[in-house]
Amino acid sequence: MPTGTKKILILGGLGFIGKNLYNRLVQDGHAVTILTERIHDESDGFLTPTVRQHTVQGSILNPQLMNNIVAPFDVIFSLAGSSGAADSIRDPYHDLDTNLKGHLNILEACRQHNPGALLVFPSSRLVYGKPAANPVREDHPLQPESIYAIHKITTEHYYLLYQRLYGIRAVIFRIANPFGPFQRFGSNNYGILNWFIHRALVGEPIEIYGDGSQQRDFIYINDLVEVLTRTIDTPAMAGNIYNLGAGGGISLRQAVEVIQKYIPATQVVFRQWPEIAKKIETGDYIADIELLKQHTGWAPRTSFDAAMKETIAFYDRSNK
Amino acid sequence: MPTGTKKILILGGLGFIGKNLYNRLVQDGHAVTILTERIHDESDGFLTPTVRQHTVQGSILNPQLMNNIVAPFDVIFSLAGSSGAADSIRDPYHDLDTNLKGHLNILEACRQHNPGALLVFPSSRLVYGKPAANPVREDHPLQPESIYAIHKITTEHYYLLYQRLYGIRAVIFRIANPFGPFQRFGSNNYGILNWFIHRALVGEPIEIYGDGSQQRDFIYINDLVEVLTRTIDTPAMAGNIYNLGAGGGISLRQAVEVIQKYIPATQVVFRQWPEIAKKIETGDYIADIELLKQHTGWAPRTSFDAAMKETIAFYDRSNK
């Protein structure tokens, strides 16, 4: 391999972040392997024959497989696991098994077979719960409002403990609301903007709970992936937890206005909060991203409008 | 039942805290049931025929049993689960199963069959890790240094979430270093003072890692149990996390001096720190107990010297 290129494993590499990260890492010249539980050939054009050659089918829930696979890699992105705050409340045991046990398997495998690896774990802004004030710094109290968010905190601690006990380096990101190409489409479980764009593209009205004034910190996937790649060459990041967002708030109403700019026929209806959604709604969230900027020199580069335009174009030509 | 008496379930009621709590609650006139995984008739005289009548054998790891058992109780003390920071590092999966799944079973059973119950969960001072300064308030950052401590944090969040989502009341205590009668004897896994007393009573030297200057907040079990009973009649405690300690520091060297006062032949040897013990040693710890005092009016009543005298006398006449 050329100097500077690394052997990189993406666990859960056929998810939203995984696909975008894979493309970027390959473009940067790295040797990238994907591990995925199911090889689902979606209509988004990602799974080319070349990508398929670098994809291994298997689960992080299989400790033996993890023991066998981790050794050769310089960097492991731990993107596998189930997501969904509401689902985790309906079935806490499932969330426990897929998230906590899965990440213990990754860490135990690295402890035994690859303690020199750098691990990157995506946590969530949901660990904060309802912020006392915005923007939210990393030392804000943690008041998780779902089993999913509780287990994100647990997993953060796992990674930090394994660095402390065994020297396995770990970088943790509390990711805000990512959006962009390759997010799973056609369900409201995977990112509200993609769901909104889907509704607009198929000519159905966008439903908003409440008055649409609630703010989110929407981070475009290309900007997010840029941060993930910085971990490879920034040793000082190891052992730290960083907020990863755009550092600004956009209301759902503003987001819809941008969609209407590019898909003018888009309709919106406002609905009352369903009970469970209301209980886990966290109110406005804006990330304080100063720590990340200081340690990496990174700053988000894509405007919300430009990012939405690219995202809409992507979905318009792939899988509506 | 007389007015004011409650139906109370102690999960893990044959443990150290459980036995002392049982005796006190019965003395106060409550109707108390013990659930225990194993009915082990130790030589400490606790398991009388009467107590045995109120003891049910079963595990919190059995969800069906939990569903069947919780309904009639006003208060449930969730004292079951495995303990041991070093053990949890050797087998994180075991700690995950016995602690996290067990407490989810309790909470799910109450959600479905007894949402009006008051639950009391014993967390640990170990959630803080190495304190930045003493005394430690409840809002001190959490830097757990073992899987055991991580899972204590997770379980705290579980209890608070179930109160938030389903109205099940929960009171959480971060317990310092409890000691006194009925602590398991003859092993250094269950409380350092009891281990020291055991060594002194059998005429073996007490081993101290380092110079013995490390301070602990030793809380006598009678004072601790008094706090647990306050939860029954103090509704304002629900939803809170409290430090539970004596609020002062005693060094291991001082503790040994008190043992030598009552068992004059006691020998001490100082040893270098073993590797794993050194990694999870948290340094001095003193609890700030102001919040607990404010909410309950409680204060510890037993001097360290008097508590040690009682504890030594108990072990001297029961199981050496």
Give a quick summary of the entry:
The structure is a homodimer of 320-residue chains. Chain A is α/β, with parallel strands linked by helices and 320 residues long. Helix content of chain A is 41%, strand content 17%.
What does this structure look like?
Two copies of one chain form a homodimer. With about 325 residues, chain A is of the alpha/beta class. Chain A has a domain at about 5-180 and about 220-245 and about 290-300: Rossmann fold. Chain A is built from twelve helices and 13 strands. In chain A, the strands form four sheets. Chain A has a seven-stranded parallel beta sheet with strand order 3-2-1-4-5-6-11, sandwiched between helices. Chain A has a two-stranded parallel sheet with strand order 7-10. In chain A, helix 1 (about 15-25) packs across helix 8 (about 220-230) and helix 3 (about 65-70) packs parallel to helix 5 (about 90-115). The mean pLDDT of chain A is about 95. The interface of A and B includes residues 93 and 150 of A. Chains A, B: It holds the Pfam family Epimerase. Chains A, B: This is NAD-dependent epimerase/dehydratase family protein. Chains A, B: Belongs to the NAD(P)-dependent epimerase/dehydratase family. Chains A, B: It comes from Dawidia cretensis.
